[in-house]
Amino acid sequence: MRQKLPLYVLKEVLPWYLGGVVLFLTLLMTDVLSSTAGALLSYHVGLGQAAALLANQLPGLLNKCLVVSVPFALLLAFGRLAKDSEFKAAAAAGVRPLSLLLPLVLPALLVGGVAYYNAGWLTPESQARWWSSWYGVYNQSPPPPSTEKYTYAQGDTFFSAGRVQNEDNSLRAQLSGVLVVQGDTVYSAQTGVWDASAHTWTLRGGSSVTAGGVPRPLADPLVLPQRDVLRRPDTPPDQTGTPQLQAQLAALNESQGVGSREGRVLAFELSRRIADPFTPLAFVLAAGALGLLVSNRAWAAAGVILFIFAFYVLWSTAPSLAQAGALSPVTAAWLPNVAFLLLGGGLAWRLR
Fold first, then answer.
1. How far is CA 88 from CA 2, 10, 85, 95, 233, in A?
2. In sequence order, which ranges of the chain are alpha helices (DSSP H)?
3. Tens digit of each residue's pLDDT (9 = 90 or more) over 214-238
4. pLDDT tops 60 at residue 25
5. Residues 6+ away with beta carbon under 8 Å from 238
6. How many C-beta neighbours within 10 Å does residue 154 have?
7. Under 8 Å between Cβ of 53 and 45
8. Which 8-state DSSP code applies to residue 104?
């Protein structure tokens, strides 16, 4: 009996887990469909094109479902076992309660492995296809890649642009919101052109002002030497695979130093892709220990709501804490796991 009971528990949990994945995926896809149906109908998107478009959302939604289905399955399955007094029977046979969680460790690690690969490779590719297809709904091309808030210092000259937009990945780029400080003179313009082959910035229709002076319009286009290298803008983190994201973070830390806001965003995204696959394992301990303590299905259902709500609050708050510098990116990414491991440890202490 002692050998068969853990496998019996695994068989009890597995159908609930698969049902939870289907349930949560259906709910999330319904939410996506409700927010996009208006545009799809207005622009007469065909059924096949709409299905292909929505399919690009599946990998990103699947990761959330794989994680939150763990406490859903454990608590509801354990609630049924507790209701039928099967845990009491196991305890009477000398089975330690926490030993019932051991068969769930390997499945949790397998789920984490799937989540890791999905988040680092499949989801970024599907997100890139989603945005490309979404602009196609409006018969538009995706906006060209751009670099925001560009700055560069060269001798006594400081170059700044609100946006650098390279439409065809060539050696020329359009500049917006241009500001150049050269000694005591400040040049500004709404737009400009960066010619990387000639190593120049050209400002048109701008103005200049010296220290203590008044702005004077530039009669002719102003050409300034600029030796920086025009780089292709980085893709957004949610559309970037893990290896490319690591390379972006290394290049950013080298150019701007460790601790910049953009660096914290990238570091958090990388850390989260490592931390989230371990969340099912943390849930096995926390939700499993709580499930061993519940006495009926009502308490189990309440536990499901509590777990998912607490996880969502921690998981959604962590990015803001990392971006603001309140927590390091690594600490913020692992915060939900640490919280549930502490909870699981406390509950396991009661079951010892």
1. 13, 18, 5, 10, 61
2. 4-42, 47-55, 58-83, 86-92, 105-117, 123-137, 242-256, 261-275, 279-293, 297-324, 329-351
3. 889 998 999 999 999 888 788 889 9
4. yes
5. 123, 124, 127, 269
6. 14
7. yes
8. G
Check: pTM over 0.85? Answer yes or no: yes
Q: Which residue has the tokens 């196609």?
A: 136
- What are the DSSP calls for 295-341, one per residue? -SHHHHHHHHHHHHHHHHHHHHHHHHHHHHTSS-HHHHHHHHHHHHH
- Contact indicator for 69, 21 with CB cutoff of 8 Å: yes
* Token pair belonging to 174: 């359009």
User: Cα–chain-centroid distance for residue 260?
Assistant: 18
Give me the residue label for tokens 């303590």: 293
- Residue 79's CB is within 10 A of a number of other CB atoms, namely 23
Residue type at 67? V
Instruction: Give me the sign of the Cα torsion angle 94, 98, 102, 107.
Output: positive
| Contact yes or no for 336/316 (Cβ under 8 A) | no
Element housing 218 (H / E): none
Q: Which two tokens stand for residue 284?
A: 């096995």
